[in-house]
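Field: sequence (string)
Field: structure_tokens (string)

Example rows 1 and 2, in order.
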Amino acid sequence: MSARCPQCGSDKIRSAELHSHDGLRRMVLYTPLRCRECRLRFWRFSPLKPLLLLIALAALIGLTAWLGSFSQAPRTDSVAASSAPHVQAEQGDAQAQLRLGLRYAEGDGLVQNDKEAAKWLGLAAKQGLAEAQYHYGIALLEGRGVVQDYKAAFSWIEKTAQRGYAPAQYSLGELYRYGTGTAIDKARAYLWFNLAAAQGLEAAAKARDSLVWQLKPEQIVAMQEEARRMNHKANQTPPATTLAAEPAPAAPATP
């Protein structure tokens, strides 16, 4: 049935534009029309509009549920993945404690937390894991998550360095060089820089070479000989990252 103007009865009707003040109810349920004769703007009920709206709403709900089914599984996997290291670490697994400590330190998949990082690194370090001993020593050195303690930091880093862990050897050289946690000893700084440089640490090689002019020739010869001896001994033992035995005794101080 064709529409007629309610004012003049004309059947010369056309569609009219929607206006912002028309209201949501009219926009949803009615269609605006305008009479070509008297210019009256009026409304006509449109049964298709609410039907189309319901179809669109149902489609939106279905799409949301469908997308939600895909996101649920990864979240479950993610929770399981993030909780697994905690479970293993709490059970005393030193490697899991190290990984968890590093994740907390770096904010890798967890909220960054220096205190938690130091806690787990310390537990792994006390089980003899060389890499954990090094990172725990650095935490003590910088006071990250624990009370700063230069002497304790020196002790942990020295243990790891003696077991052939190159980053610890370089750090120990720095501690001797500047007298952090120990007395200044440029000769022993040269020794540890030399050992770290032998494992490919460029920064250690540069630091070692910068000390040459500060030492006597006989000191350099003595430290080079000690470095060769220590390097030979290290080659007879498993890698420091997995070795869990007690560290070798400290080398005697240079006269």
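Row 2 begins here:
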Amino acid sequence: MNEDLLHSVAFAALPGMNLDVGRKLLEVVGSEADFFKMKEGELVSLVGTSNRWFTRSTRDEVLRKADTEIRFIEDKNVNAVYYTSPLYPRRLLEANDAPMMLYVTGACDMNSKHVVSVVGTRNATAAGVKFCDNFVGQLSAMLPDVVIVSGLAYGIDIAAHRAAMAHGVGTVAVMARGLNRIYPAVHRRDAVNIIKHGGALVTDYMSQDEMHKGNFLARNRIIAALADVTVVVESASHGGSLVTASLAMSYNRDVMAVPGRVTDEMSRGCNKLIAGNRAALLTDANQLVESMRWDVDIRQTPIAKQLSLFEDLNENEQAIVNVLRGAEQPMHANDIAHAVRQPAYLVTSTLVELDFKGIIATLPGSRYQLV
């Protein structure tokens, strides 16, 4: 058996190990092999403090676990990607709490120039699923190398993966358990198709690890760190996708959210992110590409749908559209409220609705104009 691989797998499997701690420990002890060969007293002397990792029983246990895991990955053709490997995602290296080892099946380039995480509620609406398909379709036309990252869960996650496959771009499913079993089981066929379509399944869990509820939140840190920007499509006022958004912000990543009606339960989380200036408002791929300043000529990409004479506007919406249609330049929300003689809070809510429908564009400084 490859001794280097054995020591790398075992070192990464130490309980609580992460990239930041692992790097610091290796600076002191020298190498993974040295860590497992040294006596407990030597490790304590070098590090300056005791740790349960240093006991012979702990180190022997993770070595046994690593030996079993290597047999699994060799049998199932899984790639063990250590943090020193050129295949390890470079964006993930920027997150101190990232895992030292990833287990990967598939061949998707996680170091692609453009990587977007798409997350959202498990209880996705038909509108949310449709948005995923349209949005990923638009991105694929503008950025053929784009990679879509999500978590293989019900709702928005699986919609994002399916949209990526349908539009011919790579997708990475980050799992909350080992690669020995797909969860949820109903997405097994999707997992197989992800591999067939040039995507990848990724996890930092071994096949022997038990599944816990906390795995899902821990998994979200990888989803957030793998991408340049995280898009929240739908979310209730609390949920895992909001945690992912917070993690993305902590990694200095961009966050964008799709607005929805203030009365819709599955839009409350997105609206809260936007209202708190923790996420930029997103209505289509154009906005994302412009916000990220990605090098693509969006003027040559006919992705916007034509509006049908605003036939579905209510009275308040129509009043705002009429005001903006007669304006020579973008208008501030307060000026719009004054022009239509409506309370500012009501106008703000209506503006969100119009932006969501693609009728107006939101500009910096709370200014608005017709699309």
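free_text_note (row 2): The longest helix spans residues 56-76.
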